[in-house]
């Protein structure tokens, strides 16, 4: 699953509930549709807008408490994805990563 910023920039991918950067470096994990970075900080929830995937945070909500950090291995980069057009999102949504 390819992940984009709301600006349309391709920032990474999720494979087996693990979030990786565009070059395959471990960034964090996915749990029940929510994304945590490798240090255990909440980064947002997986959001689909017009068929594309984003990690967004609602700026009006308080983040959940941090989780214990997790380590992960880098993997081979998936087929690179091109940037897409910017997304139209609710005004209170911001990028999680």
Could you characterize what this model shows?
The chain is mainly β and 97 residues long. It has one domain (2-95). The protein is 0% helix and 42% strand. It contains no helices and 8 strands. The protein has a 7-stranded mixed β-barrel. A hairpin with a 4-residue loop joins strand 3 (18-21) and strand 4. The mean pLDDT is 89.
Helix/strand layout:
Blueprint: E1 2-4, E2 10-15, E3 18-21, E4 26-31, E5 34-37, E6 42-49, E7 52-58, E8 93-95
Parallel strand pairs: 1-7
Antiparallel strand pairs: 1-2, 2-3, 3-4, 4-5, 5-6, 6-7, 7-8
Task: Describe the structure in brief.
0% of the residues lie in helices and 42% in strands. The protein is mainly beta.
| H and E order | EEEEEEEE
What proportion of the residues form beta strands (DSSP E)?
Answer: 35-45%
Indicate the structural class. mainly beta
How large, in whole angstroms, is the Cα Rg?
13 Å
**What is the mean pLDDT?**
89
* Envelope shape: flat
Q: Stretches where pLDDT falls below 50 for ≥5 residues?
A: none
Distance between the termini: 15 Å
Task: Count the E strands.
Answer: 8
- Quaternary state, please? single chain
Number of domains: 1
Note the total helix count. Answer: 0
Biggest sheet overview: 7 strands, mixed, barrel
Strand ordering within the main sheet: 1-2-3-4-5-6-7
Query: What is the percent of helical residues?
Result: under 10%
Give the key terms.
97 residues; mainly beta; 0% helix; seven-stranded mixed β-barrel
């Amino acid at each position: 699953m390819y992940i984009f910023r709301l600006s349309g920039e391709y920032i990474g991918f999720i494979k087996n509930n693990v979030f990786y950067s565009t070059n395959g470096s471990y960034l964090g994990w996915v749990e029940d549709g929510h994304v945590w970075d490798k240090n255990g900080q909440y980064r947002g929830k997986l959001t689909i807008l017009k068929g594309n995937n984003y990690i967004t945070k609602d700026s009006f909500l308080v983040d959940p408490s941090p989780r214990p950090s997790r380590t992960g291995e880098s993997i081979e980069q998936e087929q690179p994805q091109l940037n897409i057009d910017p997304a139209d999102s609710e005004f209170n949504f911001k990028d999680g990563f």
